[in-house]
Write a structure and sequence with these properties.
Length: 213
Amino acid sequence: MGKKKQNEDLHGNVPDRFPVALLIIDMINDLEFPEGQLFLKPSLKAAKQIAGLKKRAQALQIPIIYVNDNFGRWRSDFTEVVEHCLNDGVRGQPLAELLHPEAEDYFVLKPKHSAFFATTLDTLLEYLQVERLILTGISSDVCVLFSAKDAYMRDLALSIPADCIASDAPEHTKMALTYMERVLGADTTPSDKLDLSALCQIDVRTDEKVPAL
């Protein structure tokens, strides 16, 4: 009898195995910073698209991972960040209402711009056996871009739906999308045209069908 890989199930806490994961970056956000008003309208527009994409992803059992700043609240956890955005009358409350995390969702708190820097995301993706990330969130030209670069360096394929990211200005989002598509090989197909079923069935590194889950 072969020896079982050590900690294969991450002590039972990560039951999913999936080639694709949906990342929602910094959308649980109070927007209470000087430029926050500039983010509100485009972020709300993106949030509506992300909410639809999340529902489709859930139907296919694609893991949903919230990656969020702690916004300097070093003694807080993600639950407290969510409660703050929902209940304290902050500018970003509509975003939290649209994208309220659910019990089966994963979350990672990050201290800096990239979803990977000094976080547990690498470990989570390894146990989920993820090969492609669908990146959504704010801001297009900072946290999403930095996360996309780090994912690319890890040989992860990228889908970044153009209607599911936002920044403080349309030109900043456009420049970020152009760069991520040209340099990082990201697929920027809008969310309503993104074929999630196809992404679930194809091993992005071998272009072969993966076994049904």
